[in-house]
Design a protein that fits this description.
The protein is of the alpha+beta class. The chain has two domains: 18-50 and 162-271, Roll (Outer membrane lipoprotein wza fold like); 94-159, wza like fold (2-Layer Sandwich). Helix content is 24%, strand content 28%.
Length: 274
């Protein structure tokens, strides 16, 4: 059984939840006054709160999956869960491989090479990209069985470096998307299954965290793009770390958005590895 863990603590990405809430409130209130994309910036000069470490676990049947920090909104907890169940390892990701009772064959922390491999003192050079943590655990258990009697293997995801995009709100599959190709706003929405009947195609926001810790909100009228009425630049390119918000019933009111605890940490998490 694997235990997955990822650390979100990275000083350059510390972000105040209040900054995110202010940014989202601004996006909601100002969009009503304009139908074209625009830009807003919200600074945060106060001391920022360090995002919590994702190290707790939920036991569901025969699966052990990671959970966000205690107190995070259940909506985000489910998104974290789905991400870790399906995330496939890539170059620069960091993992730990521990073999119970055999510290000499364990790896406390190892970074996956640009070629997608790691080195193990019994198994040699091993390709580990393109598989989930569960699949890698099963593989190591099988391979080590040739050298050890009934090995107990625990694989942990320490840090996911792949560029990530978040999409929340009224889409069919809200969650975290690994960015493995250049994507524009309509590509991200399509990847999430499209906007639901309750979603507002004319009210989509992109929340972007800049390197200096400020947040920027880009407002997009996706309905115009779908209808062929938009200029090419309105279908904006999406960057790793962006959070796309499709407004509608899920986040219908400002108070609903403000009530999603852990949103600031979620955006910081998306920004890791971009």
């Amino acid at each position: 059984m694997s235990r997955w863990k990822i650390s979100l603590t990275k000083p350059s990405l510390k972000l105040s939840v209040s900054s995110i809430v202010i940014c989202l409130i601004t996006a909601l209130t100002s969009y009503a006054q304009t139908g074209s994309p625009g830009t807003e910036t919200q600074g945060d000069n106060n001391k920022r709160k360090t995002p919590p470490t994702l190290s707790s676990q939920d036991n569901l049947g025969n699966k052990t999956t990671p959970a966000p920090a205690a107190g995070d909104d259940q909506y985000l907890r489910d998104i974290y869960r789905r991400f870790y169940e399906t995330y496939k390892l890539g170059p620069d990701d960091e993992i730990a491989i521990r073999v119970q009772g055999h510290p000499e064959h364990s790896l406390d922390k190892v970074k996956i090479s640009p070629m997608g491999t790691i080195y193990h003192n019994l198994l040699g050079e091993i390709t580990v990209v393109g598989v989930t943590i569960q699949q890698l655990t099963e593989r190591f258990t099988s391979d080590l069985s040739e050298y050890l009697v009934n090995p107990k293997v625990n694989v942990e995801l320490m840090d996911a470096k792949s560029a990530k995009i978040g999409i929340l709100g009224d889409v069919l599959h809200p969650g975290i998307i690994v960015m493995n190709r250049p994507m524009k706003i309509v590509d991200v929405i399509s990847e999430a299954g499209g906007i639901t009947d309750t979603g507002a195609k004319s009210d989509v926001s992109v929340i972007r965290l800049s390197p200096d810790g400020n947040t920027q909100t880009l407002k997009v009228n996706v309905k115009r793009i779908y209808e062929g009425k938009a200029k090419p630049e309105e279908n904006i390119p999406i960057q790793g770390g962006d959070l796309v918000m499709v407004h509608g019933n899920t986040f219908k009111t400002v108070s609903k958005i403000a009530s999603v605890t852990g949103l600031g940490s979620f955006i910081s998490f998306l920004s890791l590895g971009r």
